[in-house]
Design a protein that fits this description.
The protein is mainly β. About 10% of the residues lie in helices and about 60% in strands. It has two helices and eleven strands. An eight-stranded antiparallel beta barrel has the order 3-4-5-7-8-9-10-11. A two-stranded antiparallel ribbon has the order 1-2. A hairpin with a 7-residue loop joins strand 9 and strand 10. The longest helix has 13 residues.
Length: about 240
Amino acid sequence: MKQPVTLLALLGAVWGGSPTRALAQCHFAYVPVYAHHTCHCCHDSCAVEKPFVPARWGGYLGALGMVDQRRTPYAGVDAAGYYWLRPRWATGLRGNLTGKMPVGAAPETYAGAQQPLVDQYAITWTNNLLILDQSRWRVMAVAGAGVGGVRLYDKAVQVATKGNCGCGTTAKEVAGAAAPVTEVGLAALYKLKRAEGPWLTLRGEYRQWNGSAPFGLPQQFSSYVLSVGISLPDAPPKGR
């Protein structure tokens, strides 16, 4: 039974490698067949296991917190989908939406709403650049541009709504506005497992509102944005 092994070793030496290295590429299993009182040698395809190569598509989902220039806090959701064009450069779309938040301001600055509520949303084309790439830690520079919007509601005026649970009421929408927005910031990522897995992600940015609104103060809706969530999958390796 040693003849096949010896032949492979000789072939490996002739090809240009050592017999030990040639044999190391294959795994042999000897399965005894007792009915014939002999053994059969079975081997695999001799393929060497390759390192993990992640997909170039990625995504992010997190919880969002914002504070505008009038120190009105907002809370909402943040999501993004992106594609790694280069090992250190990803580009894609990002969207976020906040809930309706009360603002402590004089009604005359909010189109006469007696109990003003405001929410915000944005859709941006976002670019991520890896500036620190470690096995479990990464830091990215983030920059984006797109369209943002704000909507004003008056909680003092309720309108009827219909839903799966029957009829209800909600605050009346009084006005809205949209404008170009730009954002710039940093993102820090920490791999939760040593193997392939999700990255805990913290994003901090400043979003510039480049327009006006029929309510609120000028430049009020430029905001500091903080987001915490999970990113998948891993970024491509440097050699790809």
